[in-house]
Design brief:
31% strand, alpha+beta, five-stranded antiparallel sheet, single chain, 170 residues, elongated, Immunoglobulin-like
Length: 170
């Protein structure tokens, strides 16, 4: 029995979580009087090529902003081979949402606040990620990891029991 415990402990040590780089998108943006420019890349620095970029008006900004439930698209573009993009700066001050989406499930949103007469916009990164990329809470991550470890320990125990059974028959 102690050998099984030792093997299970060894397996647990080898499968403990280790730091890994996420593959989620990153978005850097600067805004001026004429253009909002930026770059979209993955966490490892790889550029997001041909990703769709949308600028949407929210909270009283842009045309048709009287309806708070709608977010009219103000401008769209695609990233180039280096993940760079540029959009015209909206004339109306207010809140805007900048979205990058590569069409393969990698999506990132950021809120952009344009102030009257300001040459530079203030970017607040809300990091809205799909649920399959990031669990909602640390507790959910911990419980998921524990379930994974228990499943692997059960598989190891089953394999060891089956192996001991074959030794007894042979």
């Amino acid at each position: 029995m102690s050998r099984r415990l030792a093997v299970s402990a060894a397996l647990a040590v080898f499968i403990l979580p280790s730091p890994a780089s996420a593959h989620g998108p990153r978005l850097t943006t600067t805004a001026g009087d004429e253009a909002i420019a930026g770059q979209a890349s993955f966490a490892d620095g790889t550029p997001m090529v041909a990703a769709r970029i949308e600028l949407l008006a929210v909270q009283g900004a842009g045309p048709g902003a009287g309806d708070a439930r709608r977010s009219p698209v103000t401008a769209t573009t695609r990233t180039d081979a280096d993940g760079r993009f540029a959009l015209p700066t909206p004339l109306e001050p207010g809140e805007y949402r900048l979205t990058v989406d590569d069409g393969l499930g990698h999506r990132r949103e950021a809120r952009l606040t344009l102030e009257q007469g300001a040459a530079v916009a203030h970017l607040r990164d809300d990091d809205i990620a799909p649920p399959h990329e990031h669990p909602d809470s640390p507790l959910q991550r911990w419980v998921s990891g524990l379930g994974y470890l228990l499943g692997l320990s059960g598989a190891a125990a089953w394999w060891l029991a089956r192996r001991e059974g074959r030794r007894g028959q042979g």
